[in-house]
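Dock 5-amino-5-deoxy-1-O-phosphono-D-mannitol; give full complex structure.
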Amino acid sequence: MCGIVGYAGKHHAVPYLLEGLEKLEYRGYDSAGIAVNEPDAIRVIKTRGRIGNLESLIASQRHSDATVGIGHTRWATHGKPNDVNAHPHLSEHGLFCVVHNGIIENYLSLKAQLIADGFHFASETDTEVIAHLLEQNYDGDFVSTVRKTVAMLEGAYALCILCRDFPDSIVCTRWASPLVMGKNSDGVFLASDVTAILKHTDDVFYLDGREIALIENGALTFFGPDGAAGEKQPKHIDWSVSAAQKDGYEHFMLKEIMEQPKAIQDTVSPRISSDKRIVFENFHLTDDEIAHLNRIVIVACGSAFHAGEVGRYVLEKMTRIPVETAIASEFRYRDPVLDSHTLVIVISQSGETADTLAGLRLANEKGAKTVCIVNVVSSSIANEGGSVIYTHAGPEIAVATTKAYSAQVAVLYLLSGYIADRKGLLTDDARKTYVDALLKLPDLIDQTLRDCDDQMKKFAELFIPMEHAYFIGRNLDYACAMEASLKLKEISYIHSEAYAAGELKHGTISLVEKGTLVVALAACSDVFGKTMSNIKEVKARGARVLCVSTSENAAAMNEVDFKVIIPDTLPLFAVTLEVLPMQLLGYYTAKSRGCDIDKPRNLAKSVTVE
Ligand code: M6R
């Protein structure tokens, strides 16, 4: 949530800052700004709206030769998205300038004290407090002033700071919000997300919590929370630069939908050994611990939670351990009963979602075993989990997740098979059948995407004028309905609801009338007949029904208005194919409605506030 960039090097800073901000715009896009160290002062240029507005504003002003600067793209939390609240923020006399991701929870008491001490506030943001505090705490030493200041802050922060007295330097620090940096012969590049600096280097340094980095004259020095300077090893990033570009697609979302065969291939195949066993690297759950697990809790937000809903069915079916799912923002405040026989599975694409991270910390504190399914390497959740299983989906830029969701589901299949196998619940034949079917998924995903692309473009036309839609299904189909409904609503702004198909008649069916669109997910053969009964109920009230199922059920789908047939696979894996036409439906509907698909209103990719 919000994006930070910085550059200090041999060249003019502004083009690098704008290039980085463009890459990070998906993290927040209601205002943007930069600050550069000029000979006599720190110069700030900022505006509400997108990076394009900032670029025009910069182009209309005098050129800057500055070689050191910071930038920010904002997702508003404190104060409206306007010019004044946009970052960067200057201190009272312009000595310090700050860009900030996160939320300072004690900012009101700090602000009251600063006002009493004679400081004046221009903005409504929590961030401006930090700028003024830096000036108040200034002792002539940039790093020690930052250390003193952050010790007064409660909450989350990633900070990049300029000081007028140190025109060749940037100081950065963070707590519960990420920051990454790297250097090459052109200078030092920093950002809140590695995709913004990948073009310049793929050997990067992730700042640890409360660590401080000083960037000065092309050198990077790291100071631990105790103030001691220390060595830090870079991490090599495998993601290619092109993976973070649109590659000819009109939107990142469509590109990422089409990348799903590769994402699943890359996630699954390295975890299958030559003797068809599931293996994980750096997995710390022993067979004895697995044998003594009596409960599994899956904690996540949004689509990651929906992936967890798939996992709930699959894990329970395969391992015979009771499984529950919990929305992270609820879980963290409900004092859950957890012990060393509970496995908490935490799922997050970004690895930085504030509520999910808090849920993981709670599970760790309470002594549960934790396994995290994460896409972003070295993110906070990846670093704090008992074990981490990475989804190898590559960078996901569109705010609406597609390939990361599918990769999360693939890891849950792997984990279910692994635990079942370690518990001795799978015969050799059953294990091989399961693993073979998993390995075939990338091809089936590819086939499904090719088969239903044109069809979903056509069906999207039905949704364009709609204000409401309903998605129904049972068991795994219901898990898919939740994700399908979110995909449609978050990018097309059509109100939609997902219901367990049998639940509709307990109230919501009163909303169904002539012409209402109902999407029925019906790939689970064991409950297909039951779902068909629910389809008849809505048809009887005038609904038009689009139904997704497998070829074995095609003949029995005579009641429905529109059919989508997905390829055959194991019943537990059909949901992975079933979700694909739903992603395309959301995409093409939003496109036809002229929506901003990759950056839907009010949203941001990584939700680092609770
Ligand atoms: O980074 P995370 O996986 O933790 O993010 C969780 C949700 O914020 C995310 O899935 C969100 O719901 C997406 N907009 C869904 O497309």
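Observed: The longest strand covers residues 3-9.
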